[in-house]
Specification:
Its cofactor is FAD. The chain is of the alpha/beta class and 371 residues long. The protein is built from 12 helices and 19 strands.
Length: 371
C-alpha cells in the first residue's frame, strides 16, 4: 500500500458503486481536504442494489440515486464502469496505485437450498429473478418459466417483493419501472397460486409492516394465512415492530377468503423444503412440517429461493468461504484495505444502514490519511 506522507492528494479506490460505495464517496469527497476517488464498477451503469435490487414498483426508494448522481458529478469523484476488479485490474495493482482501497461489492450470489432436485428447470434464486425483472444486463436474456403455481422460499421482504410483483395486474405494473419486455412476459403468465414458505414460525419472520400490508391492497389478489399458523405465538416480549407484523398476519388469517380473485397468496410457516420433485421440470416440493414432524407435497411449477446471498470472491482478496464474504476484522481486510456494506456484514440491513456504516468508515479513513 502506498504511503501518503509525500502526497498532496490522497487517492482512494472504491470497488462497487452501490449504496455503500456511493455513500462513502460522498462523505470522503466532502470531508477530506485533498482526495481523488475512483469508483470501479463491473457493470456499464452505477448504483448497484439501488436499481438492481429495489423492487421496480418502489420508485420512492430508488430516488436515492438522485443523491448518488450528484456525488458522481463532483470533480474529485471518478466513475470507471465496465471494469471487473480481479480481471481488468488486479488486487495488487489497486494496492500499488491507491492510498486506500475499499471493497463495497455487495452480495450477488444466491445461496443454494442444498436439497435434491435443485437443478430442475423452473427453480431460480431470488437474486437471479429480481435482476431479471429489474433489467440487469447479466440477465437480459433470461426468460423464466413462470407457471400457475409459484413457490417462494423465504420470510423476508425480498420474498414479499417477488410475490407482489408476480401478483400485480398489467394495469398495476404501468406505474412501475419494469421494462416493456418484462411487462410483456409477466402479462402472459396465468398465476393462480403463490406460496410463501418460511422454515421457522411467524414470530421469526423478518417482514416489515408496510411491505406485508401492501399485499392486501393488490387489486386482484387474495392473501391467506392459516389460523393455526399463529396459534401459540407469544407476542408480549417481542419488539413493537414484530408485534405489528404479527397483527397484520392475524388480520389476513381472520379475513374471509375470496376465491373469485387470483392469484391467491398463501403463507406457510414451519415449512422446511426437503426435495424438489420432477424429471426435468419442477413438479412439486416435498416439505417437512417442523411442528408436527410430518412430510407433505406441494405441487409447484416455479420455485424462487430468497434465502440469502454470498459475496463473489475476487482473486487474492482474503475471503471467508464459510460466511460467503470477505475475511476481515471489523471491516479491515489488511493494512489500507477495507470492506463495507453487504460484502462486510452479510446481506442484511436496508439502504440507510449503509450510510451510517459509511460514515463510520469515512471517519477512520480521514483520521488515517490526515495523520
Amino acid at each position: 500500500m502506498k504511503s501518503t506522507k509525500d502526497n498532496t492528494v490522497h487517492k482512494v479506490a472504491i470497488i462497487g458503486s452501490g449504496p455503500a460505495g456511493c455513500f462513502l464517496a460522498e462523505i470522503l469527497a466532502l470531508k477530506l481536504a485533498a482526495v481523488q476517488i475512483d469508483i470501479f464498477e463491473r457493470l456499464p451503469h452505477p448504483f448497484g442494489l439501488a436499481v438492481n435490487g429495489v423492487a421496480p414498483d418502489h420508485l420512492h426508494t430508488r430516488k436515492v440515486t438522485e443523491q448518488f448522481e450528484r456525488t458522481l458529478a463532483r470533480d474529485n469523484v471518478n466513475l470507471i464502469v465496465n471494469t471487473d476488479v480481479g480481471r481488468s485490474i488486479s488486487y495488487s495493482e489497486l494496492k500499488q496505485r491507491y492510498d486506500r482501497v475499499v471493497f463495497a461489492t455487495g452480495a450477488s450470489e444466491d445461496r443454494k437450498l442444498g436439497i435434491p432436485g435443485e437443478q430442475l428447470q423452473g427453480i431460480y434464486g431470488s437474486g437471479c429473478f429480481t435482476r431479471w425483472y429489474n433489467s440487469h444486463p447479466d440477465y437480459k436474456d433470461l426468460k423464466p418459466l413462470i407457471g400457475q403455481r409459484v413457490g417462494i422460499i423465504g420470510n423476508g421482504n425480498v420474498a414479499l417483493d417477488i410475490a407482489r410483483v408476480l401478483a400485480k395486474t398489467t394495469e398495476e405494473h404501468q406505474t412501475s419501472a419494469l421494462s416493456k419486455s418484462v411487462r410483456a412476459h409477466l402479462s402472459q403468465c396465468n398465476i393462480g397460486e403463490i406460496h410463501i414458505l418460511g422454515r421457522r414460525g411467524p414470530a421469526d419472520a423478518s417482514f416489515s409492516l408496510p411491505e406485508l400490508a401492501e399485499l392486501g391492497s393488490l387489486s386482484q389478489a387474495g392473501v391467506q394465512v392459516a389460523a393455526n399458523a399463529l396459534a401459540g405465538v407469544e407476542t408480549q416480549n417481542l419488539p413493537p415492530s414484530q408485534q405489528k407484523m404479527l397483527q397484520q398476519l392475524q388480520h389476513y388469517a381472520e379475513a374471509p377468503e375470496d376465491s373469485s380473485v387470483a392469484p391467491q397468496i398463501q403463507f406457510h410457516f414451519y415449512a422446511t423444503p426437503m426435495a424438489a420433485i420432477g424429471t426435468t421440470q419442477l413438479e412439486a416440493l416435498e416439505i417437512r412440517d417442523t411442528r408436527r414432524g410430518t412430510l407433505y407435497t406441494l405441487p409447484l411449477d416455479t420455485l424462487i429461493t430468497a434465502i440469502g446471498y454470498r459475496t463473489p470472491a475476487i482473486a487474492y482478496v482474503p475471503y471467508d468461504a464459510e460466511l460467503g464474504r470477505f475475511a476481515h476484522q471489523q471491516g479491515n481486510i489488511e493494512s489500507g484495505v477495507y470492506c463495507l456494506g453487504w460484502c462486510q456484514r452479510g446481506p442484511q440491513g436496508v439502504i440507510p444502514t449503509n450510510r451510517s456504516e459509511a460514515m463510520k468508515l469515512a471517519r477512520q479513513l480521514i483520521r488515517e490519511l490526515e495523520s
